[in-house]
Amino acid sequence: MRALILAFLLGILAVIPALGTDFDERFVQADTLVIKTTFPMGAEGARHLLDSFGFNDELSVITSIRPAFEGVFADDSDFPADQYFTVRLKPGSAMKDTIANLRTLSSLASVQPDYYLSDPDLLTPNDPQLPKQWYLDRLKVREAWEYTKGEGVYVADVESGFDTEHPDLKNQFDRGKTYDYDPDTDDTAKVNDNKMSHGTPVCGIIGAEADNNLFGVGIAHQAKLIGSQMANSMAAHSTDSVWTVNAAKAILGSVARGASVVLIEKQLPSTSSSVERSKVIYEAIKAAVSKGVPVVVPAGNFANELEVEASQEDSGSIFVGATTTDDKAAYFSDHGERVDVAAPGESVYSTQEGDNETLSFGGTSSASAITAGVTALVKAANPKLSPKEIRNILKETGTPIEGSKKIGTLLNARDAVKRALDS
């Protein structure tokens, strides 16, 4: 059996259909790769895999290999957890050369760096005197509330941290489902409280409490929030925690804990693109969608045209672009045929850490948070709709956006909810 496994692993030379090695090494985890094998294997298979790479050769650049999802989601048939491994290289190894060499092995389906994930950046508005939450009327959210306010829906925000004790959010989080997926955290059941965090304004946009005489109100304020934290730090940019495998664990964990909608508030600065350029995150998204859970993804703030691999199947996620206060495509928003819908990406007011503050928020961060809120309303209106049906409803009921930049249609919450009720 061992000989058969080794023969298969060594394989014949083949080119792996994957992305090139054009990435910025400043934004990947040093000396670490994420690989996917062409067939499932456990710890023993991993050792054989090491042998096939010449692990016992003193000249080998590989120092260790371990299952990326060991003991986690092993029974999830929609996600190939037993095919993913993290590989550690000798410090100072030529990462791009190593990736190119490993991609010649037919035993590997994918070889990528462990990308660092960043927040779709905050943008400072030019006019802070805009009426707070003007976007609720612009997108006809208040009219949608005549039909639903998100009751019965759980929205998970895959993030870097949350102020779960904020007075406008503390009653909105489901504490039993909120979880910290950072492997470096001692208490994985507790997320950051009362710290500067990107997730606080995001969750305020989605589900800030209503009728409590405080601050604003969330789009789906009768939904419950799930804080799925993948980095236990307010300054997630500076830690080694915000990597692709963490994000995949948070996505899968959110679904396992009962999320009805998943929002991924991250982008890939190493390739100036959306998180779906990471194979492991892409497959986690596909697994979530296959279980009937819509996944909302910010297109990104790199002003790039998104490229989609011709061989890559549609994950089913909802890609979100950003608009200005006058409903034009924002200059910073990534764009292209893959972007489905758009929402305001500047001067969006929401909750901030602390007891008495609101924050003017923006970027595809705010746009995707708004979209997650509207998605929750549609899901509440008709729970039987599939993720792709929900995506189509959002696209088809939206308002066309003028200009040559393709960022989808501008959300219309009222019409989307009505279409869902009639479906």
Main sheet: strands, sense, barrel: 8 strands, parallel
H-E string: HEHEEHEHHEEHEHEHEEEEEHHEH
Number of domains: 2
Number of helices: 11
Strand order of the largest sheet: 6-7-5-8-9-10-11-14
The CATH homologous superfamily of the largest domain corresponds to: Peptidase S8/S53 domain
Count all strands and give the number.
14
Distance between termini? 53 Å
Shape: globular
Q: Structural class of the secondary elements? A: alpha/beta
Write the CATH fold name of the largest domain: Rossmann fold
Assigned CATH architecture of the largest domain: 3-Layer(aba) Sandwich
- Rounded to the nearest angstrom, the radius of gyration is 21 Å
The low-confidence runs, each spanning 5 or more residues with pLDDT under 50, are 1-19, 122-130, 233-241
Percent in helix: 25-40%
Mean pLDDT: 81
Strand content: 15-25%
Structure, described:
With 423 residues, this protein is of the alpha/beta class. It has two domains: 2-115, no CATH class; 135-422, 3-Layer(aba) Sandwich (Rossmann fold). It is built from eleven helices and 14 strands. The protein has helices spanning 2-10, 43-52, 95-102, 135-138, 141-144, 199-207, 244-256, 279-290, 363-381, 387-397, 413-422, and strands spanning 28-37, 62-67, 84-89, 108-115, 154-159, 179-180, 224-229, 261-264, 295-298, 318-323, 341-344, 348-351, 358-361, 409-410. The protein has an eight-stranded parallel β-sheet with strand order 6-7-5-8-9-10-11-14, sandwiched between helices. Strands 2-3-1-4 form a four-stranded antiparallel β-sheet, covered by helices on one side. Strands 12-13 form a two-stranded antiparallel sheet. The chain is globular, with a radius of gyration of 21 Å. 55% of the residues are buried. Residues 1-19, 122-130 and 233-241 have low confidence and may be disordered.
